[in-house]
Amino acid sequence: MAASPSASHDASSHTAASHSNTRTGHEAQPSFVAPSSFLRPGSVSRPGTPAKPLSPLDKEQIEGLRAIRAFLKVRTSYDVLPLSFRLIVFDTALLVKKSLNILIQNGNHQLILPLFPHLCSRALGIVSAPLWDSRTSTFAGLLTTSDYINVIQYYWQNPDALAAVDQFRLNSLRDIEKAIGVTPLETVSIHPLRPLYEACRKMLASRARRIPLVDVDDETQRAMVVSVVTQYRILKFVAVNVKETQMLRKPLRDLEVGTYTNLQTAQMSTPVMDVIHMLVKNSISSVPILDADGVVINVFESVDVILLIKGGVYDDLGLTVGEALLKRSDDFAGIYSCTLNDRLDTIFDTIRKSRVHRLVVIDERNHLKGLLTLSDILEYILLEGESPDEA
Amino acid sequence: MGQGESKEQNRPSSRSSTLPPSSTASPIPVPSPSSRAVDVPRIIGEEPLEGADFQPSGLPDDSTFGIGASTRYDRPPRLPLPIEEELHLPGSPIISPIDTQTTDGDGDGVIPRRISVLSSTTVDDDDLGDDIFTTEVHSLNAPTVPTLVVWKGDTDKVYVTGTFVNWERKIKLNPDKQRGGYSATIHLKPGTHHLKFMIRGDQTTSDDYPTTVDYAGNFVNYIEVEAPPKPITEADIIEAVATSAIKAGEVAAVGEPAAKPIDIRAGTRVPETVAGQRPSLSGADGNQSSAHGPPDAIPQGRDSDRRLKAPPREKVPRPKYNSEVPAFLKDLESNENDGRAERAKRVEQTLPSPPSLPMFLGKSILNGNMPHKDDASVLLMPNHTVLNHLATSSIKHGVLATSGTTRYKRKFLTTIMYKPTTPNEA
Q: Rounded distance, CA B252 to CA B270, Å?
């Protein structure tokens, strides 16, 4: 490569300034591993620095991304759906605590609610459901874990209102949001026959992790929800069907994927309510749990909130996060981690084989380096290298 | 089942549109919506064999992939990854390494009969609760049907693989001079088969065949092969004719090709039998000639004539309906002690019991095993007979769950709605 040492130094310091993700040891990298910022045309102008020729690794990465995007633009959300699939819908008149039980029970693959829900600690099968308002015969949004978190917040702020909280129905969720001052997430939806690319863009724009597929029923001319598609399902579909994911061989340290700064963390002794507050305030979906030496030992995910209020009992909110995590079921899949040397091809492979929603990026001493979520991966896949106008 | 019988009567109409060799518009058998009912054999739209040899190109690879490895990547062979062993279901494609070794199509002449693993078979009653993917018992006895598979496009080598070979072998498609592109005739058992085409080592789906996603999430094409009808014996014909006069009349009435299959299958004796019955049934000479005459196009007008000449149905007096509750039902509930209630109860015993629930409806797919442990929203394929029925669970904790399965385009959607029983609790 013809880059002079001073030019490469400028480029790398420029990189550090223009992007918030820090790169460890980036300046020490030999110049043949070109940083991905060079792939973005016109984003940052570096007068006087010639564009570095792309290495074969870069070219392959670009090629792989292109193939994945082409796939996403052709395939539709309908294609992702299984041949025979299930959709759970809640009437908005249902009590919140009962809806919780139902979600857990459906993880048990049974239609009948057992008599002792608190004894069932199976893995959470389904964590969200569309809501149906039977008075107006319309769909009323999507029930997700953030709604349960909001209920917990409300109870925390109004501890005397336990009786009221107990009687909350799903149609009062919007009022709860107003009461605690949370701006409601806009519920986007998409027609099942629109391309996956569009569904992903909508999810990224609204920061949602799932999107309902809405079609018009031809008999009643009313909106019907066909299914709810999650980011995980789409990425798994890509991982299974697009072999070009294997072309993404650039290591994470050279990519701009994931969050590496301003990471919220907690310790096992942190009260679980503090952790929940972190989730809400920062609009994040997980908090890594570190020990006194900074070693990552667990991650508290937003779906774990359901474990807290499973029995309809709100007493467990006084627990520490360590005690709360004990409520996880025995067949919990575990925390997935990776290092900065890992590449997207292996990450896609992991997505294909297991239910991964996020990866904790650690170093060789198991210290926290960053967090890589499915939204990050999706954003990278869709938007990396595209001009800012398209973003 | 009653449904089965009525399907038999519909058979002639499908026969008429698909049997004549030259009339199929496209080589691709267009699956009809009702073709999902594999347990009722129907005639398919089949191409006559044109001597397009069917040459399987056996891959040198072996049955280490007998367990469901669903790696899609054309890499050197790997042992099945441990987590995929849970996908023990034959529905997941087992892709063994593809084109690193290009074997040029001279496999052995016959593909060994493998389990034809169908992920959308509708199965006999007893199998509903079990793993419905092993359809061995079901399909081993079924004859295979030569089916033409076509790839339109311009490449040098085209192979096809699929569930019919357990994704372990690829079959070479030969250039088809007549149609352009490539084709091969493969013997497939009746049912639905997933397939994918291999072009230069890449697996792709064809736009000419419908696509779907199988249980492993792989995006595949599929074709539906219908079983050829069993040869109808004379006894069957006579019984069909005798039991239902009008319907037999309609068999011939639908059109001349309807007569043809009877000719072909049962030889010359049958038409005479049918014709012999005809005069007693309809008294129309037109029927006789159409039953065993040479195939010539009979205009639609004569069909309706024939139908009119068929003997009139026996008139069963229509029951009169009203909205008055019969007295004995009212008496059942009466609490007066004049013995009316007891008498009504006795009458009630003598009444026929209502029909019991058909077997298929008794086993909901929601209560069956999950085909996919990780994915709670994947269900077994429903039998088409349970579609659009309302199912419900018992009320627990004041919550009622109702569900129904419907088709959504080419897939099945089961919606479960949870409702409180008392929405306006104070």
A: 13
Q: What is the pLDDT of residues B316-356, one digit of tens each?
A: 778 888 888 877 777 777 666 677 777 777 777 788 888 88
Q: Which residues contact A253 (CB under 8 A, 6 or more apart)?
A: A23, A24, A25, A26, A340, A341
Query: Which of chain B's residues have a Cβ under 8 Å away from the Cβ of A116?
Result: none
Chain A residue with the nearest C-alpha to that of B410 = A83
Residue numbers in B near A94 (CB within 8 A):
399, 418-420
Task: Choose the mutation target among B117, B133, B213, B218 for the interface with A, i.e. most A CBs under 10 Å.
Answer: B213
**A285 pLDDT more than 80:** yes
Nearest Cα to Cα of residue B10 among B18, B147, B358: B18
How far is the CA of A59 from the CAs of A40, A64, A283, in angstroms?
Answer: 13, 9, 35
Of A385, A389, A326, A388, give the one whose Cα is nearest residue A68.
A385
A187-222 confidence digits (pLDDT tens): 788 999 999 999 999 999 988 889 999 998 888 888
pTM of the model: 0.62
Spatial contact of B309 and B281, defined as CB atoms under 8 Å apart: no
Q: Per the structure block, which two tokens stand in for B179?
A: 């149609």
Mean of the pLDDT values across residues A357-368? 91
DSSP state of A48: T
Q: What is the ipTM of this complex?
A: 0.77
Q: Which two tokens stand for residue B299?
A: 């205009």
Q: Which of A84, A132, A353 sits opposite B81 (nearest CB)?
A: A353
What the block records as the tokens of A15 is: 């990189």
